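Collaboration report, partner site 2.

Our partner group contributed sequences for two proteins of shared interest, and the home lab folded both. The records are reproduced in the order in which they were received, starting with the first partner submission.
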Amino acid sequence: MTDRAAPRHPSQRLRSFRPYRGPESSNAVWQVAVVAVLIVCSVIASASPALVHAAVTPPTDAPPVTLIGDSTMAGMAWTSTTGDDPRDVVGSAYKLIFDAESCRRLVAPSCRGRFGYVPMSVLPVMSSKLKGRLGEAVVIMAGYDDASITDAVDKVMTEAELQGVIRVLWLTYRTNTDYVLPGGIAARTLYGSHNAELAAAAQRHPSLQILDWDKYSANQPEWFAWDGVHLTLTGADALATFIRNGLDAQ
């Protein structure tokens, strides 16, 4: 059952994450729960698909980048405070568009999120809402709601290549969790499969760069909420630094 409670303060949302049981796939695989919110930030007027994120101003010659994610990435927005907005770690060096949504899937229709609506999936975000504005690099942290990501990764990569994106940085999926998904599937099993599919896709797409968030965060329980997937403020800061380092590396 979808949680339709009114949005609360980010810290309250982190304390009250509940599994969302998405629609069954043809193979009866339950989709994983995510809770996220659309936050888009750049220097484009708010009438456009992006909202102004004015806490920091990048250099005038900063390259444009786009971060697209589900609730795992959305922790960078949810945990932000007046004095600590994790998005600023990236936004201080890059012209940033940040777009993260609850229950977002990669290509298949997304599930209904915590805030009562079904968000646009990653591929249509790229091909319509943000078409021509993705920038030099796109960072993907989504797929936790997908039963399989093999075909989806190929489609997302094809779209990025068509739009001239130089690099797609794709974060691996958390396996260091004891969380059991609805239907009895161990999260570590599903996400381990995702990581194998992602590694295979990198062999097919030279512009796909894997950022091993799974390994980087393996021994950091304080970075995560009870499910071992969603972020605390400490984890959101760590994720932002991890992404920034990945972007800076090339």
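Second partner submission, folded after the first:
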Amino acid sequence: MQVEYALVAEAATTSTDGKLCLLNGGVEEYETQRLPTFSPMLMLVFKLRVEANECETPHRLVVAFTDTAGQPMRDPYRHEFATRRHPQYPTHHVFYPGIIQFPLIEFPAEGLYRFTVEVDAEELKTIEINIRLV
């Protein structure tokens, strides 16, 4: 399994045909004049590539959000999922998209905060957000 893409946005939604709509996508840094600073909403947007031999098997997705010291900011998001094989191309990969909401986040200090995506206890991707005092 691989991460096709993963990014942080202030808002995101998908259409019924799988198209993605983002608002302020690709959040990598916040500049602030005082700490703590807050974000009313952040969303982790991702798409996993699931190989044919990984389909129809339960998988465990875990997304952790940690502070500058690596300590949890929230309880990890946990979700079990399984994908079906492609109906016309059963030996071809399929995709598993997701949007996870993280409402009202307080950033108490400068530095790097991280979202880490794991599937079946394997770390697949880490996205960092830098909080910078200006």
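Feedback sent to the partner group on the second submission included the following. DSSP finds no helices and nine strands in the chain. The chain has a mean pLDDT of 95.
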